[in-house]
UniProtKB/TrEMBL annotation:
Enzyme class, spelled out: ligase
CN hydrolase domain span: 4-259
Binding locations of deamido-NAD(+): N412, E441, K563
Entry keywords, A to Z: ATP-binding, Ligase, NAD, Nucleotide-binding
GO molecular function ontology, one term from the record: NAD+ synthase (glutamine-hydrolyzing) activity
Residue ranges that the Swiss-Prot or TrEMBL entry lists as coiled coil: none
Superkingdom of origin: Bacteria
Reaction catalyzed: deamido-NAD(+) + L-glutamine + ATP + H2O = L-glutamate + AMP + diphosphate + NAD(+) + H(+)
Record's protein name: Glutamine-dependent NAD(+) synthetase
Physiological role: Catalyzes the ATP-dependent amidation of deamido-NAD to form NAD. Uses L-glutamine as a nitrogen source.
EC number: 6.3.5.1
């Protein structure tokens, strides 16, 4: 057996920041070298950030990535890190000789590169290109057909990229036939609820299939609607868990692996049947031995996964923090109504940015209850956020003096005036406006266009109302708990009076959500089945939902599509969010169930 010390750098790049991302690679490669690693690996598309979307179709950006990679290789060597093999994702383009019929030579590659001693030693590209859910890779990338097998410290290491692990055949199959001792997989795998368990099972199954250990390095951080949770993993050839990184934080996972020693040298390039209808060329390279001082055996770190609510909350905090900071904002503003949704959004913002960077506006109207103001003031006091009261009754009166509005039009006027206040303060002071709508409201259209739907980012956009309450209760139980994504509040940040309050938009006397919507305990499971599982009307009824309620909810969801198209982005936490995942026509005569 041979000994290989591997370092998986679970880090947070920014899309388009080639220089900043290169700085991260150098910084974390230095940490890996200091830990005595024989090999350092970074996530998929690390140099460019992920996903680059249609930036991949700009030749200028592709070329900038290629040049940045060359500079990075030289810089690593110049800073004394050239002897450490570094594997990183980047954006590349195929050589002319690899272009397939009917495809222009400019099409880009979702690529991986080995950097060693100042050079780009070997390049490859993702073989399986996902084209489902949030992924659009088949449209913007060319499929790769090479599998690097690089001999490092006496071990043959094969390299694959993300989706190559999720599909049968391809690099996993070829890695087994090539006799690799380790399959290294670079990933930018977005978070969704319960995905960590699926990933571990997948890694274990693919390791057994390839007959070798598997190291899975994943990105961490937020990018628009996507959140990457890290959770990097190393499993043995038998699928046993050897090491695991914590979720939602940057981390260097270092592990000593006892792996099969590489056999006699083989031909440099060998075509192999990939068992998916394609052929992949195994590209073998041997690195000269790197002199590494003797280090004590690295302890195998196995971080425990977060529980369900902690995981969701961490994703919302990270997604909010990175959206705000990566887009150049330092502070946020939101309307604080005394209700559960705005209370949770304010708390997420405090955890993400610090209470001193959160500004709340209390906007009482003629229909606001006394408790709405006092409860909001109590939350402000507990969290230490900035707040001001701007009564809107006079503003509403001024509009009504000029407009003859009744019913829903009059109700929505109040919501739109509130939005004008916080948008005006946003423009004046440079705050990003946070929107407070939840997934249940978005699904059913229970929001005012250009009113409570106005803003720049929506932290709970993908959170059903029932889960909003669950998260609020969970967050209160964590007061004083030391978790990296929580602010150390001295007491429960959300007053119990807010959590126990019956939800209401307070746009007319005595208004309650339940007057317009079913009870959320009944509504949310139906919405999950219709929106996330795409069940039709008959399937919903077969699943146990009331037929009349199913008809009503289907109509509400379908008619609200135009509102959702105009809603701000927010962190994705479910298998199908409103945004990148779910794309339906606004104009359509199809009605589910006839």
């Amino acid at each position: 057996m041979a000994q290989l010390r591997i370092a998986l750098a679970q880090v947070n790049p920014t899309v388009g920041d080639l220089d900043g991302n290169a700085d991260l690679i150098v910084e974390w490669a230095a940490r890996a070298a200091a830990a005595g690693a024989h090999l350092a690996a970074f996530p998929e598309m690390m140099l460019t950030g992920y996903p680059v979307e249609d930036l991949a179709l700009r030749g200028s950006f592709v070329e900038a990535s290629r040049l940045a990679l060359e500079r990075l290789a030289a810089r690593l060597a110049g800073e004394g890190l050239g002897d450490l093999p570094v594997v990183t994702g980047h954006l590349n383009r195929p050589p002319v000789g690899l272009v397939r019929a009917g495809q222009p030579s400019g099409l880009p590659l979702n690529a991986a590169a080995w950097l060693h001693r100042g050079e780009v030693l070997v390049r490859s590209a993702k073989h399986h290109l996902p084209n489902y859910g949030v992924f659009d890779e088949y449209r913007v990338f060319v499929r790769g057909d090479r599998l690097p097998v690089v001999r490092v410290h006496g071990v043959d290491v094969a390299t694959a990229i993300c989706e190559d692990l999720w599909q049968d055949g391809g690099p996993v199959s070829v890695a087994g036939e090539a006799g690799a001792g380790l399959l290294l997989v670079l990933n930018a795998s977005p978070y969704e609820r319960d995905k960590d368990d699926v990933r571990l099972d997948l890694c274990a199954a693919r390791a057994r299939e390839a007959g070798c250990a598997l190291a899975y390095v994943n990105m961490v951080g937020g990018q628009d609607e996507l959140v990457f949770d890290g959770d990097s993993i190393i499993v043995g050839a038998d699928g046993s868990l050897l090491a695991r990184a914590p979720q939602f934080v940057e981390h260097l996972l270092v592990a000593d692996l006892a792996l099969p020693a590489a056999g006699p040298a083989e031909p440099g390039r060998t075509p192999v049947d990939a068992h998916d209808g394609t052929t992949i060329t195994v590209d073998r390279v041997e690195l000269s031995a790197r002199p590494v001082p003797a280090y004590p055996v690295a302890p195998q770190t196995v971080a425990g996964p977060l529980d369900d609510l902690a995981e969701i909350y961490a994703a919302l905090v990270l997604g909010t923090r990175d959206y705000v900071r990566k887009n150049g904002f330092r502070s946020v503003i939101l309307g604080l109504s005394g209700g559960i949704d705005s209370a949770l959004v304010a708390t997420i913002a405090s955890d993400a940015l610090g209470p001193e960077n959160v500004h709340a506006v209390l906007l009482p109207s003629r229909y606001s209850s006394e408790g709405s103001v006092t409860d909001a003031e109590e939350l402000v006091k507990r969290q230490g956020i900035n707040a001001r009261i701007v009564p809107i009754a006079g503003m509403v009166d001024a509009f009504e003096d000029e407009l003859d509005l009744h019913g829903l039009a009059a109700e929505n006027l109040q919501a739109r005036i509130r939005a004008n206040v916080w948008m005006g303060l946003s423009n004046e002071h440079g705050h990003l406006v946070l929107t407070g709508g939840n997934k249940s409201e978005l699904a059913t259209g229970y929001s005012t266009l250009y009113g409570d739907s106005a803003g720049g980012f929506a932290p709970i956009k993908d959170v059903f109302k029932s889960t909003v309450w669950d998260l609020a209760r969970w967050r209160d139980t964590q007061a004083g708990v030391d978790l990296p994504f929580l602010h150390p509040f001295a007491q429960e940040p959300i007053p119990q009076a807010i959590i126990g309050k019956e939800p209401s938009a307070e746009l007319r006397p005595g208004q309650r959500d339940i007057d317009s919507l079913p009870d959320y305990a009944v509504l949310d499971p139906l919405l999950a089945d219709y929106v996330e599982r795409d069940l039709g009307r008959d399937a919903l009824v077969a699943a146990g939902h009331d037929p009349a309620l199913a008809d009503r909810v289907i109509r509400l969801v379908d008619l609200a599509e135009y509102k959702r198209r105009q809603y701000p982005p927010g962190p994705k936490i479910t298998p199908k969010n409103f945004g990148r995942d779910r794309r339906l026509p606004i104009t359509t005569r199809w009605r589910e169930g006839g």
